[in-house]
Amino acid sequence: MRFEDDALITGRGRYMNDLAAKSEAVAVFVRSQVASGRIVIIDSDAAAGMPEVLAIITGPDLKAAGLAPIEPRGRHPGPDGGEMRVPLFYPLAIDHVRYVGDPVAMVVAETKSAALDAAEAVLVEIEERPVVVDPLEAVFPDAPLVWDDFPDNRCFTYEKGDKADVDASIATAHTVVRQRLRISRVVAAPIETRGAIASYDPAADQYQLELGTQAPHRVSGDVAPVLGVAPDKVRVVASDCGGSFGMKNAGYPEYPALLFAARKTGRTLRWTADRLEAFQADAHARDMWADAALALDADGMFLALDVHVRANLGAYLGPATAHPPVANLGGIAGVYRTPKIYAKVDGIFTNTQQTAPYRGAGRPEATYIIERVIDLAADEIGLDRAELRRRNLVPQDTMPYSSGFIFTYDSGDFPGVLDKALEIADWAGFEARRSEARARGKLRGIGIANPIEIAGGPVARPNPEFARVEISPAGKIRIHVGSMDSGQGHGTAFRQIIADRLGLDTEDMEIVTGDTHEVPWGTGTFGSRTLAAAGGAIWAAADTIIERLKEHATARLEAHRSEIVFEHGIYRVDGRNRAVSFAQIMAEQAGPVSAETFVSNEGATFPNGCHICEVEVDPETGHVELVAYSVVDDVGHMVNPSLVKGQITGGVAQGLGQALMENAVYDPHSGQLLSATFMDYAMPRAADMPGVEVVGYPVPTRQNPLGVKGAGEAGTVGALSAVMSAVSDALRPFGVRHLDMPATPDRIWRCLKTQPVKEPSA
């Protein structure tokens, strides 16, 4: 059982709209209804005179008050060899709008109804301009410009590997498989939309922002420069978070605008996005085209891989927009030995909402690229897909292994994981199941993917995490930690770490998190890092306390310090039957003992696994049913296998959602978001999910004291590829070589109708 569940499932969670604020006012945003154009006028006079209206704020107001543009956290080389092109991203649009939903004004009123009425009365006149929403079209010479300063709509160009060397290998290869792959645009669509409570304390000259997020310190760091203050002047307090998946882990334009308005009006302000607003204003994700070429020799051994990605960044660069297309690019090497790899990523502006990290943040995309072209290669040379993978897997005895392309894998048994997955999924018996389904008029397919991802990075030096552990003589434990829970079960895992390390009863344990005032430092929860980073920091703080109390144990045991060893809450004399518990030593202390750390692990880790999925397709309707799904995952040591299974199962649901139904679509002519409600944006339901069999195959890492590798994103990283592999396999007997995601019933039906009518064969 998870420690957190009781409060959350009995209605005692504290989400944004559960938080009470005294004498609060309400803010709403006026957003552009066109995708591109020059702002001719914003007339707010009539709205300002309406009852209960306190203020109407526009972009020029913020700029005049000294607010700065939002800046990206990272930068890549520019497309012309210079600096990355960074547009001016003010919290409210100033002269132009560049996507549907671009905020142009904010209304503050006593009540939400009054604010909404006034927002309707704000007159915004925009001189419309042509739009471009597809990154492939955006680079055409005659494409409409998102920014006049950037004549080719390019933001950055990132390259890794030796292009000439890869081209030479491809030119002489026995087989070369090429495919353009579409990786669709998705939205996080959390249960709880974004919202915030903003206030300003003039006595302390401090802003406060309450919201749901997994990374309060990062949000503070993003917002403070926009306001022109130090991060410690922006206190971020995180409540329970009804879904984030990375989307809520950055500063958005609404936040500094709200804080400015709170200071201007002297009131506490509340803003809650409705669902339509969330679809338009929350960061989207994925959205790229990838041209991939895989070269093989006559025996099916990989020789070279060439990948060119065009990533749709949207109109603006949020703090983390430039991260996903590049940061986890090393994943295209997969778990395979490919001697030569080259990749190029072009970041491209379009008249769409910004993209940002979403569960996996580049990892599912990288895995999809390599796994899809392997499937196509197996079909091309007539080899079983699992066998082709097996021939090219990195052997266990070569660990640690440098892929030659960005990543060095710390540990793993890739062949063992594959063999276990094939066994539990009965890969060998599939053709009999295909035949049985065919007799029922269904097309059955099986898919496979061997995902690997970086966790707890960056690869060169992992981000640190903060923990402070305080223990009273009575055994009460208080932990301050920089990571914020949004459903992962941190409280349960952290308690287990303390129980295992110190042998204490963790029922009386308090975890303090999510407050940049109470927790002085922190990095946050993302990238499958928390158990390694935060758990490692807690372990290190506990070790400091263990060492501090070792003198007391030495005296108690009448031994020399060098003879004392500590394991599972017990000090004992090495080689002799004399021991004393940590709890006993702690009980003799005069007061609480504490230690704090802000530490990094030795290096990144690389969770890996094998996903096998089976589907049945109805050829009359194109409907896809998932009938079986199994996962073998190496996430290192599993502190709590139930938490691991929950994380992987949830990740699988999100991966299958993108593979089969989720698709954020903009009209190519108007730039209108066509999938702006749940009537148009499909989400997986319980009936779409088969029971997922999750089997652990732990190969502990030495990169952190817990031996853990991370599990939060593993399900999504593998599922996107495995599901598309299964659907493609179901259609393969009909001559369908490739189908882009999402594999909707309409798309499958149309695909089958265009194929020659013939009797399917295995």
UniProtKB/TrEMBL annotation:
Chain ranges of the Aldehyde oxidase/xanthine dehydrogenase a/b hammerhead domain: 10-130
A GO term, aspect molecular function: oxidoreductase activity
Alphabetic keyword roster: Molybdenum, Oxidoreductase
Keyword Nucleotide-binding: no
Record-linked InterPro entries: Ald_Oxase/Xan_DH_a/b (IPR000674), Ald_Oxase/Xan_DH_a/b_sf (IPR036856), Ald_Oxase/xanthine_DH-like (IPR016208), AldOxase/xan_DH_MoCoBD1 (IPR008274), AldOxase/xan_DH_MoCoBD2 (IPR046867), AldOxase/xan_DH_Mopterin-bd_sf (IPR037165)
SMART domains linked: Ald_Xan_dh_C
Keyword Oxidoreductase applies: yes
PANTHER family xref list: ALDEHYDE OXIDASE 1-RELATED (PTHR11908:SF132), XANTHINE DEHYDROGENASE (PTHR11908)
Protein name per UniProt: Molybdopterin-dependent oxidoreductase
